[in-house]
Amino acid sequence: VTDTDDDYRPGLEGVVTGETRLSRIDGEAGELVIAGFPVDELATRATFEETLFLLYEDRLPTPEERESLRADLAANRVLPEEALAAVRATAEAGGDAMDALRAAAGAAHIDHDDGDPEADAVRAVAVLPTAAAAYWRYHEGQDPIAPDPDLRHAADYLRMLTGEAPTERVVRGIETYLNAVVDHGFNASTFTARVIVSTESDVLSSVTGAIGALKGPLHGGAPGPVLDMLEAVHDSGDPEGWVRERLDAGERLMGFGHRVYRVRDPRAAVLSTAAEQFYKGDDSGFFDSATEFESVARDLLREHKPDHRLDTNVEFYTAVLHAGIGIPRALFTATFAVGRAGGWTAHALEQLENNRIVRPRARYIGCEDRRYAPDDER
Ligand SMILES: CC(C)(COP(=O)(O)OP(=O)(O)OC[C@H]1O[C@@H](n2cnc3c(N)ncnc32)[C@H](O)[C@@H]1OP(=O)(O)O)[C@@H](O)C(=O)NCCC(=O)NCCS
Fold first, then answer.
1. Residue 257 near ligand 1, beta carbon < 6 Å
2. Which of 77-81, 108-112, 115-119, 193-197 has the lowest mean pLDDT?
3. Annotation says 315 is catalytic
């Protein structure tokens, strides 16, 4: 085996690099299965703790097991002072929320150092909502709010963010979101987590690296722009004219198209139902204009690119739901990380169960036979 072989796939596209029992994606059929459950079956019903237990143990918990994991997560949500200081410094220096999360995950071992991968996994998942909420409060010139050991993970995230105990309707909305995005095959951040732990590094390090991978706009960054777009369309009062103008100018519509899905992203269906339930009753104007826009945009995209199958992706209704729940735009990607941390840690544990260090090869395209030249000959 040399480093000049030709079986080269940029971005590892289509290459199967491991086995997993955690999630299965069928991009042609628009299916996502989480540990055996169709995503809509699980996401809209389970608590985040149940989903996490399912990923770790491959079955739903008993009520006692669910409570035990809830209490464990809650106890682990408390950040060490050093981590909180790093979050504060990031917010005050104008850094973004993902920098704050990465710093907090990087410092979470300080008062924890357990060495047990499963305890590290719970720790890594637990600290992220605390860091995201603290970042936002420092950003707004407020003091952070300490975790509440009696609350569920999702509810406590919102309480630490706003200072108020959220209603069950709001908690259901955010839990459906966290469950819907908890895992999605070998995406870039999950693969990063597996690569890191494959060196027998620790699970907290793998989550720290995964946060860095998710930070990039090609992976974690679209719901903010979707919301900008929806607000602009809402203000224009003419969705069709607005879309035609954008497409004629060669622009892309945010929240549509996906590398893997060739039909509507199944998570979009879950989140649109969650958003519909959330907005039902009081102010459904924004939700109604979003669904109207979706239908106009899908039709016009079909007309505009008949050879491509462009449909709604997860980011579209993420933006609608987050706007309703009151997640600040600056925390959209961080909130994605709060959910995806479940998948990252479950993948890290799965990798460790049957580990082989990840070590692909590169095709060398540089020079050969160079000679070291003295300064006066360069
Ligand atoms: C997600 C995304 C990057 C996938 O890209 P991709 O798989 O590389 O898609 P392709 O580049 O093969 O697109 C095929 C064609 O459809 C067009 N297209 C893709 N997404 C489009 C969109 N959202 N709006 C308008 N046209 C789009 C492309 O311009 C391309 O046209 P061309 O062949 O004339 O150049 C892309 O669809 C996109 O940029 N979407 C908008 C941003 C977004 O919502 N991102 C969140 C993803 S979860």
1. yes
2. 108-112
3. yes
Name the active-site residue from 109, 139, 153, 258. Answer: 258
Q: Is 0.85 topped by the overall pTM?
A: yes
- Regarding the beta carbon of 305 and ligand 1, being less than 6 Å apart is answered yes
**Ligand 1 binding pocket includes 308 (Cβ within 6 Å):** yes
Does ligand 1 lie within 6 Å of residue 253's CB atom?
yes
pLDDT at 182: 98
Q: How far apart, in whole angstroms, are the C-alpha atoms of residue 230 and residue 236?
A: 10
Cα 257 to averaged position of ligand 1 atoms, centre (Å): 5
Residue 184 Cα, ligand 1 centroid: separation in angstroms? 19
What is the residue-averaged pLDDT of the chain? 94
CB 173 within 8 A of CB 278: yes
Long-range CB contacts for residues 67-75, cutoff 8 Å, separation at least 24: 69/122, 70/152, 70/153, 71/149, 72/122, 72/126, 73/49, 73/122, 73/125, 73/126, 73/153, 74/126, 74/147, 74/148, 74/149, 74/150, 74/151, 74/153, 74/156, 75/126, 75/149
Residue of 112, 315, 322, 350 marked catalytic: 315
Reply yes or no on whether 184 is catalytic.
no
Residue pLDDT, tens place only, 266-314: 999 999 999 998 898 667 888 998 999 999 999 999 999 998 889 999 9
